[in-house]
Specification:
heterodimer, A: 411 residues, alpha/beta, five-stranded parallel beta sheet, 10 helices, globular, B: 106 residues, alpha+beta, Ubiquitin-like (UB roll), five-stranded mixed beta sheet, 3 helices, binds flavin-adenine dinucleotide, binds FE2/S2 (inorganic) cluster, 2Fe-2S (chain B)
Chain lengths: 411, 106
């Protein structure tokens, strides 16, 4: 299959990766990478952590400098794709142009779920998605005295840790009964609850808000579901994301909590792939259930998989999901997917905050969550890369060591 | 500005100039040197920015912190001279540093 032109919509983590991997694999045709954000493609993870703390500057968020795109003949366009004309295999740009493709990759990511209460539009109420968001937020975070965070997911908690370290009084409202509930075990939630409390963060579970209160257009507080008023000069919410499927759905592609793709990451149109936060794929580590993941690993590995396929090396996507989050002095690294676990084994001591939680479904190890135990995380990635033979009984033995087990059970 | 020499596994030599405070991984990426992937963007979470310090330099290197050391245990093709380049910060002290890139990161 010879492709003269690949068009990529979305110049984020996944779009950048597919472009780069295509060139690395020797693709010689035209690559157009279209993104609607200003500036050069950049990474998002530091936006809610190191970048806000001023530990890394804007240049160091960039994947590559400008000359890379020229050298690699990756046509980076700052524009918005407004429609896909599948019949004529072209995309229409807001700027008025049309670009034809032999293959189209949709890497449009996701946008923050908006805060569904009155007052959400007030100044000082933020979601964190883009560099522009972080740039506006950073100076406010430094000055803020009372911060309310809505949602105890990864981004909310990362920001809570940052704000607490800057000396703000931080209050987190979470509808669920524990932090990061969608992604980690109860034990790991508990470890992070303890840590945040240690940093002075106030965690309020089973608690929503009814409105954001303001004065002269600026936020001054929030009203909680149980009727209290909390003072706030800054409100940051992280209550999940909504995949950017509009283009795909208007073009008639199958949609199911994201753009539906098969094991090869192809959409219902053979000339269109979808990857990254927007793609809903049959996930091997989730019983091949349609799954949408929001992580750097997923964006990068899916980008590589599509590039390889376009270069004549198709393979079903099977990469092991892994993820990290940095909060205060705690580095949590997760290998595998823990959803549906029914038992756990804790390795290490909760008191020392150097802990790995092994999550099992029946006798099957499905995920390992490691806090400040990077060696365990890397061992777990090896163990989980093939059907793991580690049983809960074995793991529960006194002095069990994951790295040692991995070393002893290598091929 | 400190200069680095990065040698690919096939012998190709790259001279890279980086800014003080930038990581070696970033300097290498910005110079489009192949052989450093840096999937996690420098969060010390992926071990795909692995490189070998040249023998001449080994004694002069700052010691790896525990996270880096732990991650390195599992880097593909690990040796005594292995480092994660996202954890090496460019400084005058590292001016002239010579690194060899592993074959696995292509
Ligand atoms: C604050 C924050 C912290 C994070 N921390 C971590 C972390 O610690 N670890 C981790 O693994 N993951 C983390 N993530 C998640 C990770 O960044 C995402 O999973 C990843 O960026 C997804 O890549 P993507 O390319 O699918 O989407 P994105 O990177 O979001 O890129 C999509 C791009 O497409 C553009 N676009 C959309 N529609 C159009 C259109 N019609 N025309 C043109 N352009 C369009 C968007 O504007 C956007 O720039 C974090 C995310 C955020 C926001
Ligand atoms: S870039 Fe990921 S560990 Fe260095």
């Amino acid at each position: 299959m010879s492709l003269a032109s690949v068009v990529i919509v979305g110049a984020g983590q996944a779009g950048f990766q597919v472009a780069t991997s295509l060139r690395q694999a020797g693709y010689d045709g035209r690559i157009s990478l279209i993104g609607d954000e200003p500036g050069l493609p950049y990474q998002r993870p530091p936006l809610s952590k190191a970048y806000l703390l001023g530990k890394i500057g804007a240049t160091n968020l960039l994947f590559r400098p400008e000359k890379f795109y020229t050298e690699q003949r990756i046509e980076l366009r700052h524009d918005r794709v407004t429609a896909i004309d599948r019949q004529n295999r072209r995309v229409l740009l807001e700027g008025g142009e049309a670009l034809t493709y032999d293959h189209l990759v949709l890497a449009t990511g996701a946008h923050n779920r908006p805060l569904p209460v009155p007052g959400a539009e007030l100044d000082g109420v933020f979601g964190i998605k883009t560099m522009a968001d972080a740039d506006t937020l950073a100076p406010l975070a430094k000055q803020a005295r009372n911060v309310v965070v809505i949602g105890a997911g990864f981004i909310g908690l990362e920001f809570a840790a940052v704000a607490a370290s800057m000396g703000s009084s931080v209050h987190v409202l979470e509808l669920g009964d524990r932090p990061m509930a969608r992604a980690v075990s109860r034990e790991m939630s508990e470890l992070f609850s303890q840590a945040h409390r240690r940093w002075g963060v106030h965690l309020d579970f089973r608690q929503g808000l009814t409105r954001v209160i303001g004065d002269n257009g600026r936020v001054t507080g929030v009203e909680t579901s149980d009727g209290r008023t909390l003072a706030a000069d800054l409100v940051v919410f992280g209550i999940g994301v909504i995949p950017n499927v509009q283009l795909a759905s208007e073009a008639g592609l199958d949609i199911a909590n994201g753009i539906k793709v098969d094991a090869n990451l192809l959409t219902s149109d053979l000339h269109i792939s979808a990857i990254g936060d927007v793609a809903c794929f049959p996930c091997l580590q989730n019983d091949e259930q349609p799954t949408r993941l929001e992580s750097v690993q997923n964006a990068v590995d899916q980008g590589r998989t599509v590039a390889a396929r376009l270069m004549g090396k198709p393979a079903p996507y099977s990469a092991l999901p892994w993820f990290w989050t940095d909060q205060g002095d705690m580095k949590l690294q997760i290998a595998g997917l823990s959803s549906g676990y029914d038992s756990t084994v804790v390795v290490g001591s909760m008191g020392s905050a150097q802990v790995s939680v092994l999550c099992f479904r029946g006798d099957q190890l499905i995920a390992v969550e490691s806090c400040n135990r990077p060696g365990d995380h890397m061992a777990a990635r090896k163990i989980l890369a093939r059907p793991p033979q580690l049983s809960p009984t074995e793991a529960a033995a006194t002095d069990f060591d994951l790295k040692a087990w991995e070393a002893a059970n290598r091929d | 500005m400190p200069t680095l020499t990065l040698i690919e596994h096939n012998g190709t030599v790259h001279q890279v100039t980086g800014e003080i405070g930038q990581s070696v991984m970033q300097a290498a990426m910005f110079a489009s040197v192949p052989g450093i992937q840096g999937d996690c963007g420098g969060a010390c979470s992926c071990a795909t920015c692995h490189a070998y310090v040249d023998d001449q330099w080994q004694v002069r290197m700052p010691e790896a912190e525990s996270t880096e050391a732990d991650m390195l245990e599992y880097a593909v093709g690990r040796r005594a001279t292995s480092r994660l380049t996202c954890q090496l910060v460019m400084s005058e002290a590292l001016d002239g540093l010579v690194l060899h890139l592993p074959e696995s990161q292509y």
